[in-house]
Amino acid sequence: MKARYHVGDRVVFTRDKYTPCPGPRAKNIFATPNGETYHYQVDKFWVVIEVRPNGDLLVETRRGKTHVVRSDSPQLRKATLFERLFKHRLFPHPSPQAFA
User: Fold this and answer.
1) CA within 13 Å, CB half, 89
2) How far apart are CA 5 and CA 72, in angstroms?
């Protein structure tokens, strides 16, 4: 079976959030039952810096943080052509040592 993700792939992770004030990139916004906070989703634009033998991915954020994400997570997907072309500034520029 061929690996679905490779080092350097741009990926989008959709994160659920609950706050009193959704940000400008929030989508699928719903008020919680008591109406004091909102439930919404935000797309996080990351780059794969390592594919582990068990299939997990080590990804890097725009601010240089790293996360381990399961490659079969329903919240994770490859970036579309539109996102790669028109939202390229939202993706991190991985450091060269990340690929060493």
Assistant:
1) 1
2) 10
Inter-residue contact 80 to 91 (CB < 8 Å): no
pLDDT at 100 over 70: no
38-51 and 56-60 strand pairing: antiparallel
| Among the listed residues 52, 57, 73, 74, the one whose alpha carbon sits nearest the alpha carbon of residue 9 | 57
Q: What is the pLDDT of residues 47-66, one digit of tens each?
A: 999 999 998 999 999 888 99
Q: How far apart are the first and last CA of the chain?
A: 25
- Containing 30, the helix (H) or strand (E) segment is strand 27-31
Structure tokens at 12: 């989008």
Residue 74's Cβ-count burial label (10 Å; 0-12, 13-18, 19+) is exposed
Question: pTM value?
Answer: 0.81
pLDDT at 1: 40
